[in-house]
Sequence to fold (115 residues):
Amino acid sequence: MTIYQRSSGGHVAESVRPLEGSPEAAELEQLAADPASGWRAVADEPPAPVEPDPPVVPVVPVEPEPLVERPAKGAAKAEWVAFAVLQGAEQAEAEAATKDDLITAYGGEPDGAGE
Fold:
């Protein structure tokens, strides 16, 4: 089937799809042949295939990393080094620092200071 459209400027004012062989189809065919009428025949294209919806991907909640507690001031230096690295320190720098330096930088006063 042919579709007939009447346009005004770039705007489609009317669109008609008459039954083939009907008097309306014959009249619109004559109008489309006259460029002054504003009517034109548009090739009837089959509707575009409907794209299937993309698959739904379930949202898996991400568990926040557990908060790492600051080691006790009396904990081994290795625990302070591990804690400092978890806080963003470089491994080599944390290992090179003294335990008191790590405590001061990542957990308050070193043992014996301020107590």
In short: The mean pLDDT is 81. The chain has four helices and three strands. The beta strands are 3-8, 11-16, 39-42. Helices lie at 23-33, 77-86, 91-96, 99-107.
